[in-house]
Amino acid sequence: MELIFERSRPGRGSDLLPPPDVPASPLPEAHRRAAAPRLPEVAESEVSRHYQAMARHAFGVCDGFYPLGSCTMKYNPKLGEDLAALPGFTGIHPLQPEHTARGCRSVLDRAGAYLCQITGMDEMTFQPAAGAHGEFTGLLLIKAYHVHRGDTGRTVILVPDSAHGTNPASAAMAGFTVRSIPSTAEGLVDLEALRAACGADTAGLMLTNPNTVGLFERDILAMTEIVHAAGGLVYYDGANLNAIMGVARPGDMGFDVCHLNLHKTFATPHGGGGPGSGAVGCKALLAPYLPGSALGGGGGAQSIGQVRAFHANFLVVVRALAYLLTLGNTGVRQAAEGAVLNANYLKHRLEAAGYSSAYPGLCMHEFVLTLEQLKKQTGVSALDLAKAMLDQGMHPPTMYFPLIVHEALMFEPTETETPETLDRAAQALEALLKTARENPQALHAAPVTTVIGRPDETAAARRPVVRYGFEEG
């Protein structure tokens, strides 16, 4: 495929701007570029064809099965896109006076009330721009709580060894020391290790439930009680809320603060760089520390201050509200139950085909396979199988995560996939397993039907080409 710069020809373009109807006001010389930007010069038809070709070469949830684990790459109703495109929402300006933005204020308040009901929290802020930003904000609330009480010796955040990588990173950014808590052979948090790790320096525990290997922490009430007894608070990573929304609430499990990925759970298309929203909910004891709102409210003397300009990625909240109003209480629960049912169905099909689960038994909305024995027997790795899935018209699952599982493949089928899609995926994966045992070399060469074959990923990481080489083009 030609790059847009390779299609460029000097002097070509499609300028259709009308003559200015106001006097020209050129930029002062001091603010001008020394040289014109080297932008591609192409006709409008070439621009259109370029982007159409790029779209054909990409793979999204509307193209086929997309079981990326812990990411919830699901089909989202187009109704939300239509509502988010309404002029009353897209034409709003963040500096408008509050009394002229009451409709938008109502969207935020109503969405916040529904999400508090789902999570068991008392207050909600939409300021954080994405999930990791929500983690950081929630940790700042925990920090402010301890500092305000004069308990400044609480500097440690406990994080399970199976956690998302953003958990320890966010804790470190917030100024905490991270202490890892090991998992048991069953894939659950080691309760005795948690008890031993808690002490006078414990600020809190970060946890997602179901956890990162797709299992519900059955001792969650004991875990939150242990941390609270030590004087710490408990943070809920909402990455896996899809499995329990409408069924169980983090607030009822003992969590004090949580973030939600509206772009994973509540109908904004996920991936491609955004947009996101890491809404943060908290119990009343942390509410005084919440960020102030650009539309009024909050921001008192104890607030951590704004964590983002203005208020939120507003149109993401519009989509979330539309999704919640469409589903209602019953529909939210059915979505979670469908996600769990689909995951267990596919897990059962793949185990019957000969795949090995990292953790046998029922899972929640996602599950992890281990190809460790297959690699020892045939040389076919998790990477090989994932690449081969591309030739079958499926996006690969998450590879090599969580780190506590060797040769891991993490599947999240989501609630929006049909039984027929899951059956086709199971049949294709069964065929790939047979190929791995009979002709492993074929999988080492995969993919062979895609626009780009298997690149040298080490070289790509160490010597990335991130801009066009004009001197060579």
From TrEMBL:
It catalyses: N(6)-[(R)-lipoyl]-L-lysyl-[glycine-cleavage complex H protein] + glycine + H(+) = N(6)-[(R)-S(8)-aminomethyldihydrolipoyl]-L-lysyl-[glycine-cleavage complex H protein] + CO2. This is glycine dehydrogenase (aminomethyl-transferring). It comes from the Bacteria. Residues 335-436 form the Glycine dehydrogenase C-terminal domain. PANTHER family: GLYCINE DEHYDROGENASE (DECARBOXYLATING), MITOCHONDRIAL (PTHR11773:SF1), GLYCINE DEHYDROGENASE, DECARBOXYLATING (PTHR11773). Residues 150-271 form the Aminotransferase class V domain. It comes from Lawsonibacter hominis. Pfam families: Aminotran_5, GcvP2_C. Keywords: Oxidoreductase, Pyridoxal phosphate. Transmembrane segments: none annotated. Its EC number is 1.4.4.2. GO terms for molecular function: glycine binding; glycine dehydrogenase (decarboxylating) activity; pyridoxal phosphate binding. Residues 17-26 have a biased composition (Pro residues). The glycine cleavage system catalyzes the degradation of glycine. The P protein binds the alpha-amino group of glycine through its pyridoxal phosphate cofactor; CO(2) is released and the remaining methylamine moiety is then transferred to the lipoamide cofactor of the H protein. One of its GO terms (biological process) is glycine decarboxylation via glycine cleavage system. One of its GO terms (cellular component) is cytosol.
